[in-house]
Amino acid sequence: MIMKDCIVTDRLILRRFVGGDEEDVFALMSDDYICRMAGIPPFKTVDRAKRFMDNWAGEAYAITERSDDRVVGIVQTPSYPWDRRAEIGYWLAEDCRGRGYMTEAVEAVKECLFGTRWCDELRIRVFVGNEASRNVARKCGFHAEYEEYRDSLYSPYGRVESEECFVMTRGEYEWERRGMPFYTTATVRMAA
Predict the structure, then answer these.
(1) CB–CB of 28/17 below 8 Å?
(2) CB-based contact 5:94 (threshold 8 Å)
(3) pLDDT tens, 65-88?
């Protein structure tokens, strides 16, 4: 998968991790709310944050505000090139929530992934009850595809969770770029 090293939006810079990001990443990934919503155990050490940064070096972006280099969020983009699919996962610092930052970041990553032409489908998985992440997926044009039920998912927090999967296909993306919704009677009529 070919991804840009840096994406600039109106208010944000999405870039690869660099030395010095460890403390900011640790602060994000030790936040109990973020970890509960992501279903991962909180990081206990800065060294764990360094390992996370190393493991996701090619498939994650640090989100910074254009006016400040502090890492305020992360967007992961694990990819599955054998079936031309990628996923988008995201976290944002508490003091930056409610400003539309994550919607802006996900839109930029979506443009980048579909722009590479290798990707035919994007997915966002969200634990049921994570309304903020559901809203980001919907604002970015993803539709709910299916739900994995409680008997198949385990959270490190010691309980089983249900998860929704939101999807956007290349076809939906192309229609969106033309300014038209994909799943409407008008769209089908126009395509015929």
Answers:
(1) no
(2) no
(3) 999 999 999 999 988 877 888 999
* pLDDT on residue 186: 46
| Burial grade of 177 (CB within 10 A; 0-12, 13-18, 19 or more) | exposed
Phi, psi of 35 (to 5 degrees): -65, -40
Low-confidence ranges of the chain (pLDDT < 50): 1-2, 185-187
User: Mutual orientation of helices 22-29 and 46-55 as an angle, nearest 10°?
Assistant: 100
CATH of domain 6-191: 3.40.630.30
Sign of CA dihedral 78, 68, 34, 10: negative
- CA–CA distances in Å: residue 141 to residues 14, 33, 126, 149: 20, 25, 15, 24
- Neighbouring C-alpha atoms within 13 Å toward the C-beta of 185: 0
Domain boundaries, the chain: 6-191
Beta bridge partners of 85: 80, 121
pTM (predicted TM-score): 0.85
List all residues 6 or more positions away from 107 whose beta carbon is below 8 Å from its beta carbon: 9, 140
- Tell me the pLDDT tens digit for each residue of 15-30: 999 999 999 999 999 9
pLDDT averaged over the chain?
Answer: 85
